[in-house]
Amino acid sequence: MKKVNLFKKGMMLVPALDLKAQYLSIKEEIDRKIFEIVSSQQFILGQEVEEFEKEITNFCETKYAVGVSSGSDALLISLMALGVQEGDIVATTPFTFFATAGTVARLRATPVFCDIDPKTYNLSPEKLEELLKKRRKNNQKSEIKIVIPVHLYGQSSDMSAILSLSEEYEFKVLSDAAQAIGADYPGEERVWRVCSLGKASIISFYPSKNLGAYGDGGMVVTNDSELSEKLKMLRVHGARNKYFYELIGGNFRLDALQAAILRVKLKYLEGWIKARQEKALLYEQMLIHSGLVERELIIPPVSVYKNRGVKNYHTFHQYVIRARERDKLHGFLRQNGIGAEIYYPLPLHLQPCFSYLGYKQGSFPEAEKAAREVLALPIYPELSIVQQEYVISKIIEFYKECCDFI
Hints:
This protein is of the alpha/beta class. The chain is built from 13 helices and 14 strands. It has 2 domains: 242 residues, 3-Layer(aba) Sandwich (Aspartate Aminotransferase, domain 2); 134 residues, Aspartate Aminotransferase, domain 1. Helix content is 39%, strand content 14%. The strands form 4 sheets. The chain has a 7-stranded mixed sheet, sandwiched between helices. It has a 3-stranded antiparallel sheet with strand order 12-13-14.
């Protein structure tokens, strides 16, 4: 493998994500599509949204898709459609973006947490089963109504195990696939698109996502026709026909401009995922070659489905390592022009707004440990080999100077 250059002279800027580079690669198509929408003066729902929903169902291998205003709203409207209300119990991971549990609390339901698998950072089926058994043993009145597995960083949760538990304990599975559009999961009989599993899945089109809009946007995908119709009503204040309201919904619409932009970008998504996988593999090779992995100073992400015949075993929305002296390394990299990020520095059960749930430090040790160690390195299809070499060289430099690594 090519030797890592140390770039001792000068500083290179390596942003966490370079959306300008992506835009320039498809500029002509994007500009033309934006001009079409502006010229039409049709901005709310309409044909562009309908066509995008059809294309998403094909991509995600589901029967229905409902475009909404953001990934967070996709979670909220899904919980509403599934009948979640005050007093209901919804289980999820504490190691995720706030909206996963925030939307539960917003409906005055109660989020309960389960610890994560330390390899994948996703909800641990074993810990979920422990929680379910404990609640049943204690004869707690409220059964868990919904479980939200989060396919964090772009890798599927263990859906076979979670779906098996859903049958035994009679809860519905709502997948948070905000970071995992295009990710696959190897089932017993075939490989599934992870978004097609469970009662419904939500997707985020926040600009930084692998399929990002030019503003906010989201989607709910499902194979349930009744749920799909309910979602469509809820996104327009609860009306099936204009000004006649069957439900109390909200303004959760995906606008035509975002749908049109996303339709252009969707054509490139498979190629972008492949490029991210290639960048991730190169990072892994360089980290191993550096000697840092052997000394357990840096641990590359684990792709648990990589050797199981799954093409999109991981979409690498983020390339997340574990690092000793993480905060110091983070600061050093940023001082050297590298846009490393921390997703996420404090688990949800320790956030002040969830203190009423009664969790304490030590309640979920794996999530807490991950929050102290994880660091996302820049990754995107346009990232160059030279930029990756620079990132790794600065990591090596940090450990040589700060941690007596030789």
